[in-house]
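Hi everyone,

Forwarding the result from last night's run.
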Amino acid sequence: MKIAIIGAHKVGKTTLAEELLEHLPGYTLEMEPYYQLEASGYEFSEIPTADDFVEQFNCSVDLVSSSDRRMIFDRCVIDILAYLHVVDPGRNIRSLFATAQAILAEIDLLVFVPIETPDLISAHETDQPKLRSRVNDLLYDWIGDLNIEVIEVNGTLPERRNQVLAKISR
């Protein structure tokens, strides 16, 4: 399976991805595009701009398109597109949304890690809490329109892991 873990920042996506990797033999973890681009020399603005998110989006498209099965993606095209839309709401993203839908057709399971209520991360522990909240809300709106299997996970790390593993085993 190709599994993509999506959500706003500071919700536990990477931690869940690493936990799943330990329980899914033969899988590989594809770290989020931001870190891959940064490692390759791309210089992000201190506060990422719309262009930075477009670059991450394109990187994510390439990663999913070129990957084999048995892959876990930490972040994917749809949550990067949500950031782009929140940062630059006037930008026409129809073609990017269509591209995202086409790429997501290659994903077998989308795992949405939302901001929980009560939030496990206090506002002072995260940068840009309004951006985080807006992206979370937008993802809630979008995931129903994707025509892809989505599981929303919550609770402790073992609970989240078990929710994903139970879904995979069905």
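The first helix runs from residue 13 to 23.

Cheers,
N.
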